[in-house]
């Protein structure tokens, strides 16, 4: 029985290792594990990620270790089977012998007891030996099991340390994720800044396109105005020559003035003799007291009317002088515009050459036209912005000019009304003159001596009127020259001092005449009674009235002659304007034919759309050229109106100006024909690549209708101008009195003008470098300067009026003693006004200087802003470099983390290898302990599977996070590079913009 128990224990010990069912189960597990390994490898290969190579290697290493363990386990089980079969044969023989002994025991007890006992002892010794061997093996297996448990605990500790390291790695990954989120926020901020920069870039591109468009328009205007500039230069040369002639004429007039003063002194002496003769005729005058009273009343009424007429004439003269100054200022503005347009034209020539090269390259390379077109459109949009700003400024200047023209037209209308009133007054005066003549003829029979004296005075008056008429004829020729020269004298401070000295001298002479007149009047009051005084006053008034009447008659005759001349010149002007209208109509007809031709070509080329933008630009340029030409025609019509208003002054130069205008019109037509030929060539070259221009054709037709309306309006304005010619003919009589004063002042004006011209040239040359960046501000200062020059010209006109008043007082001081006080009051008021104007001008000059300083401060502020912007750009570059450094640090950290992960993987692989070695050792030691260690094997397998799953999950998670961080870092680097490129492009564009 104990033998059977030991056999059963041995069978149970070795049966677990040689059981065929467990063998099949192990083989099934092997096949299942191999299938899972193949699936994992296929999944990893399908994912095809570069970062999963180490994981594939680890899985293959684990699978190879598992196969080696399985092969060792299979080898051990085969050896156990062999050993078990050998022992099983011996046991079966012993059992058969036992059974046979047991069967024969009753029969052979006696014979074989000794032998059985001997066999039993042998079997017991063998069993003891086997038992000792088994016990030694069990002890050895227990020792190995203890070693395996120790190794298991060590492996668990190592797994715990690996898990803690993995947790630390997860913490590092979370910190990296936080930093990545921060970088994402920074990226969003940079993207917002990039969007702002893109919007600014788009706005700058639009501005550049608008400036290009405006520059093209300005270049076209420059082409149209360059011819006018040349004509103006020729005219200025002629005016310089005329100015030299006027200097000689002025010297002659000064000599004649001295002669007239001597003759005036002689007239005063004769007047004193006339006073003595009047005392002798007191008895004869006593009979005419009643007639004298009536004549005195009539004379007072006539004198009051004449004073009113004189005041109106002075007002008209002032208004005419204002108009003259306004026209001169307009000419200065036109000269400034010519200069600006010349600069713009030079820029435009360069741009036009570049555009021609671009067109030629576009014709050669049609495939790349769209990209070049976009770039050109962006540049044109940025330039068109600047050009639109310049056009707005030009429009403002044109509006100011239009306002001045309307004011001058209103003043001309007022002058025409005043002239009509003057004519009515002259008619009334003629009636009164006839009555006075009848009364004087009735009184001439009784006063023979007075009539003889009056005839002598009339003869002297006739001689003086002849001289004055000669002077007026010479002055008329000089006045046209003075108009252009007088406007250029903008700085009149030195002249004002001279004028004040002259006024003071005239006042002293006037006071001396006044004192002499008072003394003569006091002596006359003592000698003559009230009746003789009244007679004397009436006779003086009659003589003054007769003189004024004769002067008015001469002026009326001259006005009639001027009216006839103006009528002939107006007819010539109307004929020339009709010719211009016919030329304009023919020009429009040719334009219509050209539009029809382009329409036919465009309808034939409606299949291709590649170069639509180029042809659209060409049509828009043609449209702008037509509109600019029509605006030029309008300006020419306005200029013709202004010239018609100043036709009385410039009647001798109208024919030359009309010839110049005809040349300008012919040049405009020639330029338009040349442009038309160029446009035809462009249309023929791009005829196969145009579509959708029918809408533009309709717009052109609408513009044509608007142009025809404008032409009709211009025709109406021309007709109104022709009607104004006749109204303006009466202004010639009012301008005669101003010519003498202008001739006296011509030489001083010329000298001051030459000095001022040289001074302004030097100042302009010295300030040219400082005013380059302040052109827009300079325009405002120039406008203020023109306003100051207007006020100074007004002051000059007032000084001229004061001189006229003083000269009138000097000639009439002996006859108008009662009016001296009034004239002195008027003169003092004029001087006060002049002083006030002078102070106002000085204040405005001070304000202008302050504004210039403000402009310089604004320029400095702009430069400071530019420096601040450059600092901000440098700060942005520093921030970008810092961001790049941070990204580089993150890349380094990620590389370090990847290296650490590789080290961890190597450590894990080494631990797994050690674990596999221990596993192999434990499997060899635990072959005899399968019953006790089945549960431990299953737990161990589950733990290993969990560990492998956790490790694979952690590795996968780490790899995913590493890939995400790498992708984010790459995205950030790409975005930062793009931002740097955009910032550099913006900086280069800003530099180019500053250079432009």
Automatic annotation (TrEMBL):
Transmembrane segments: none
Record carries keyword Coiled coil: yes
GO cellular component, one term: cytoskeleton
Region annotation Disordered: where it falls in the sequence: 81-121, 436-462, 613-635
InterPro entries: NAB (IPR011684)
Entry keywords, A to Z: Coiled coil
GO MF annotation terms: actin binding; structural constituent of cytoskeleton
One Pfam entry name: KIP1
UniProt superkingdom: Eukaryota
Alphabetized Gene3D superfamilies for the sequence: 1.20.5.170, 1.20.920.20
Residues of the NAB domain: 10-80
Protein name: COP1-interactive protein 1
